[in-house]
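Problem 12. The chain below contains 205 residues. Write out its predicted structure in token notation.
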Amino acid sequence: MSPELIMNLNMFAQKLQSLQERLANLYEDANTAVQPESDLLLAVLKELDTASKILEIATEKLFEQTQKLVNVQTRLREVYKRYQDLLNFIPNAYLVSDTQGKILSANRATATLFNLQQRFLVNKPLVCFIAVEERQAFRSQLNQMHSSECDYVQEWILQIQPRDCEPFEAAMTVAPIRDVKGKLTGLRWMVRDTDRVSYQPLLSL
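Solution.
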């Protein structure tokens, strides 16, 4: 929950409390008044008192819902952190991109393979790490992922170009990410150097 929302909720609660206090004072004054209009004023104040109580109940419910939202957000952050920690322990280069191949997240093994710090990988186009002579082929295969409805995992053999290093041949395993309606929303990637003998498979993309 943002600090601005918390501040707004607190201000609303303070104003509501002030309104109730003013209504109580007016109610007491009207109850002892001798003017003919006092009965009408008393009825109006009763209606306002009812309205303020309804607002008070609504405020309490809003605070409860807000607290539940805070708890959910906290749990989600904890789950996401565990997910990131798990990915960083995977010895294979694993990353997630949008449908255009822009990197959204990457583990430490990816940073090592691409010779670039992990935090600098985010928002980088994956094609930047493909050898220049094979970038057109990479883009063509990426476009095929958009046009097809397949959900199976594909493996592409391409030349990877790490930052300030010699290129090497790599196997790029790619799997689509789809929403509940079947729309392609992203891609999961696993990249491995084919020259390396040891290879730890990722059980589930």
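Discussion. DSSP finds five helices and five strands in the chain. Students who got a different answer should revisit the alignment rule from Section 12.3.
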